[in-house]
Design a protein that fits this description.
Layout: E1 3-6, H1 8-15, H2 20-31, E2 35-39, H3 40-46, H4 54-61, E3 64-66, H5 73-83, H6 88-100, E4 103-106, H7 109-119, E5 125-127
Parallel strand pairs: 1-2, 1-4, 2-3, 4-5
Helix pairs in contact: 1-2, 1-3, 1-4, 5-6, 5-7, 6-7
Length: 128
């Protein structure tokens, strides 16, 4: 079983009504028994109107949502300092992927790669 961590961009891509291929890839991952993880902060970044975001809500239904807990603020802050970046959501995505040794699904590999590098891990970063 493979594991994948979605960032906010991957969720937006799956919600795009003009491109079914991304939602289809997500469904294939689930059908094949792969575990899809979404940090709660990434979901919060993109959910605006669940009634109008049916594709997004369907995508999230098949995912395991990982909470940002009171123990995460220090490692995320330290990672941001090491990487010289400031996006808390991206940092938590990278940290979650590193903890699980899971691939990251994102349309913005350039945002995630420096964070993974700062963590000293080599993980697949795949297009959304």
């Amino acid at each position: 079983m493979s594991e994948y961590v979605y960032d906010a961009g991957a969720l937006l891509a799956a919600d795009d009504p003009k491109d079914r291929s991304r939602l289809d890839r997500h469904r294939r991952r689930l059908t094949r028994g792969h575990r899809v993880i979404v940090p709660a902060v990434a979901a919060a970044q993109v959910v605006r109107d669940p009634v109008r975001q049916a594709r997004l809500m369907i995508t999230l239904r098949g995912c395991q949502i990982i909470p940002f807990t009171d123990g995460d603020h220090v490692p995320v802050g330290r990672l941001l300092a090491r990487a010289g970046t400031s996006d808390v959501v991206d940092a938590f995505v990278a940290l979650t992927a590193a903890r699980l040794m899971a691939a990251v699904i994102t349309p913005d590999a350039g945002d995630i790669a420096p964070l993974l590098s700062a963590l000293g891990v080599r993980l697949a970063v795949l297009p959304a």
